[in-house]
Amino acid sequence: MGRDPVKSVFPGRVLPLTIYPSLTLLSLYLILGHLFEFESPLRSEYCSPSTKNTSTYALPYTGFERFDYELCFMVSVFHVALNDSIGYTFLKYFLGTSSIYFVLPCLEALRPPHTAGDEGRLGRSLRWPASWLLATQVGSKASLGVKEDQKQKTGADQENRPAIPTAHDVLGIIPSVVLGGAIPSYALLHYQDPKVTVLWQIFPVYVFLAGWIYRRLANLAQSHSTTSATNASRFILIASFLTSAYFHLIIVWPLLVSGDVTSLRQLFLPTHSPATVESSVIAFLQYDFHFAWISALLVTFLTVRFQSVWHAARMVVVTSVGMVIVGPGATVAGAALWQEGRTQL
């Protein structure tokens, strides 16, 4: 049977040319809008020359005054959130459930061209840069400077990906997430030290280096994994699901069980018109979170061939229930795991 032109054109042209650019523009409007609200007050309070001798964050990080001035602002953003009880809890939840936003682009970059979906070269090249742009909102202002490089690298990976990825290629994602993401994020939350926060800012570099070093060592040792690339990818997705679900259960479920609607609203719903700098910073991070998982969820379901309206409705219901029970991060990981059973590496 020939390819259905509707099913081909919609994911291959309509989604990449309308939905994803619209999401990107909306996210930039809302996120940068809040950034502009608190940028001047934070710079004035913590990073201006008049407060240099008394500010906790105006430190000689690099020895270059202009660069240190920008780093001071980045550090102050996260420490304003860390010093707020709602902000700290939200950052803990966000970082604890964010592994899937690293895993998805890495797995897609390894996927052979003929299994990357039916949307065609244009769809893939437009879909993943926009999605990776939003997924890297995990780092907020910290990763704004490296997003363009990540977009270009992801686009290049579409052309240079291996024809048949090995288990070592897939398993290289584990040190990327653990050494490049989890450990720096734990240090950020645990130490709450400005110098540690500065080192955390470049976590995408750690993500790349950890995976690259693992694959090079595996190649030098000429070791052969006893598992397949498909099983390795499923293991990573299951681990991501369990980790995200764990943080959702220990942070959100106590509030759900106690019926603390006010705390839930403060934790997840951005304030439309923040009254303070602190609330504006938290709203900035909350919009980061929402656009990250919405983008990841859309990407996950992009290649689903819905058999009927009822099938699509069931997927919406299951996704909605999953977001409440295990959280958005685990829901995206579970959906990706389900997709993995249909589209193997």
How would you describe what is shown here?
The chain has one domain. α1 packs across α2 (about 65-80), α3 (about 85-95) runs parallel beside α14 (about 275-300) and α11 (about 230-250) packs antiparallel against α16 (about 330-340). The chain is built from 16 helices and no strands. The chain is mainly α. Helix content is about 75%, strand content about 0%. Keywords: Membrane, Transmembrane, Transmembrane helix.
Q: What would a concise description of this structure say?
A:
With 345 residues, the protein is mostly helical. The chain has helices at 5-47, 65-82, 85-96, 99-110, 120-135, 147-160, 167-171, 173-191, 194-200, 203-221, 229-251, 253-258, 261-268, 277-301, 309-325, 328-342. The chain crosses the membrane at residues 17-36, 170-191, 197-214, 235-256, 284-304, 316-338.
SSE order: HHHHHHHHHHHHHHHH
Number of domains: 1
Helix/strand structural class: mainly alpha
End-to-end Cα distance, whole Å, is: 25 Å
Transmembrane segments: 17-36, 170-191, 197-214, 235-256, 284-304, 316-338
Keywords: Membrane, Transmembrane, Transmembrane helix
Brief descriptors of the model:
345 residues; 0% strand; mainly alpha
SSE inventory with pairings:
Blueprint: H1 5-47, H2 65-82, H3 85-96, H4 99-110, H5 120-135, H6 147-160, H7 167-171, H8 173-191, H9 194-200, H10 203-221, H11 229-251, H12 253-258, H13 261-268, H14 277-301, H15 309-325, H16 328-342
Helix pairs in contact: 1-2, 1-5, 1-14, 3-11, 3-13, 3-14, 4-8, 4-11, 4-16, 5-6, 5-14, 8-9, 8-10, 11-16, 14-16, 15-16
